[in-house]
Write a structure and sequence with these properties.
The protein is 50% helix and 17% strand. The chain has 176 residues and is an alpha+beta fold. Strand 1 and strand 2 form a beta hairpin.
């Protein structure tokens, strides 16, 4: 009975947690790179300071944080763009999908594919953004929608699939 010893169980569990950490660290590294590029590497700027605090809160190693900041300041920094997609999902729930990408055509095609595969369409700019307001540096819904159990499951599946896309940074909904 191969694969049933203690080491195998530990190895498989560690592989799963390492994959999750890698995904989170990759997203945070992109944010750090963009913020350091925008502020010229000034660690005193509020945006970069906030990004560093988020990375530290996720237990990102200091070496990775410094490398991401240096990548943003250096001449070989990749050109990352922030893109927001808007849509209405199950039960009329509004979604804002924020992505950070180096190739917006590829990211747009991937996100549209996920959305249309689930039977929805990407909205025009402003179609769902009006539901959200910015309060204390965070984007929150100004109106909320309660969903049936079936719609909530569909929404959770859609959000999980969108979250798997590597360029997706944040998914906001107005679900209660």
């Amino acid at each position: 009975m191969a694969g049933h010893n203690k080491w195998s169980k530990i190895k498989h569990k560690k592989a799963g947690t390492d994959a999750q950490k890698s995904k989170v660290f990759g997203r945070l590294a992109k944010v750090l790179t963009v913020e350091s590029k925008n502020c010229g590497g000034d660690r005193g700027s509020p945006a970069l300071k906030s990004a560093i605090e988020q990375a530290k809160a996720a237990n990102m190693p200091a070496q990775n944080i410094n490398r991401a900041i240096e990548r943003g300041v250096g001449g070989n920094a990749e050109s990352l763009e922030t893109i927001t997609y808007e849509m209405y999902g199950p039960g009329g729930c509004a979604l804002l999908i924020n992505a950070l990408t180096d190739n917006k055509n590829r990211t747009a095609a991937e996100i549209r594919h996920i959305i249309t595969k689930n039977g929805y369409t990407v909205g025009t700019p402003g179609s769902a953004a009006w539901i959200f307001t910015k309060q204390e540096g965070r984007i929150v819904p100004s109106t909320t929608v309660s969903l049936s159990e079936a719609d909530a499951k569909k929404l959770d599946a859609l959000v999980a699939e969108l979250d798997e896309q590597e360029d997706t940074q944040e998914i906001l909904t107005n679900k209660v």
